[in-house]
Amino acid sequence: MQVSGNENGSCYLGVDGGGSKTIAIIVDEQGRERGRGQSGCSNRSSVGFERAVKQIQAAVEAAAAAAGCQFPLRAAWFGLSGVDRAGDDSIFHPHLRSLARRVHVTNDAELILSALDNAAGVALIAGTGSVALGRDMRGNSARAGGWGYLIGDEGSGYELGRLALQVAVRAADGRGPATALLNHIIQYWSLDKADAIIEEVYSAGDTARIARLSGIVFKAARAGDAVARELVERAANELVLAALAVSRRLDFAGNPLPLALGGGLLVHEEDFRAQVLRLLGARRPLGQVAIVAEPALSAARAALRLAPGLSS
Fold this sequence. Notes:
The protein has 312 residues and is an alpha/beta fold. Helix content is 44%, strand content 20%. It has two domains: 8-113 and 295-309, 2-Layer Sandwich (Nucleotidyltransferase, domain 5); 116-291, 2-Layer Sandwich (Nucleotidyltransferase, domain 5), CATH 3.30.420. It contains 13 helices and ten strands.
């Protein structure tokens, strides 16, 4: 697999394993990107453990091929959604150990937090799922959200998509107010009628597919649809609530709150991001604000910096 002549010692890997896709990026000793690979969802809660590992391996192998690196790589940081509880990282370790000499496994939110000075502050992520995670200068940590799509993930792409479907079918029945979301969803999925939504939702069983409907909600909201606007405002308030819950459990000594934002909704939806920042800033003064568009790249560079201390 060694195509470009890179030595294993100069290959550092970062993996961002999310609910929609898995991205692996390899950098050299100067932190320059050398290769990347992509695969599908690697959240074990959504696709199962074996499937999650296969998706991770597929993305990493593609990145290594592009970079011309052989296994094992020098060091790797895997940020995986679904790694939420103590001991979750150890479950993945035996299956990832062959990919790098030193391996670090955390929740994907940790990748976002590393973008802040001293990795201290609050990371707020809204992609397919949602979670807030923080760390203060004393090393104390806290998190809120991240309970998964059945009982949590408020403010996420999945919840926006699910709620869009809910208000759309209520509008179709006459049980709720009219909304452009109904026709938008029918057109987006190329359906003949509203009844066909049932099969689309229940036969697919794909959280990422539902989450992609969030783009329709933002589009309808920008066009002035009152129902869509209400859904977007609800999502923003839920994310603010999660960030505040984390900040209250940590000690920032009365200083403005450092905040790192990640996930497709907060990175790519500028109006939504501004709304979240405005609502949060009204409740608590903000300090450094970092927007992390490439968590896997941040993870690879973090693996480079922290290589001697990573678990083997």
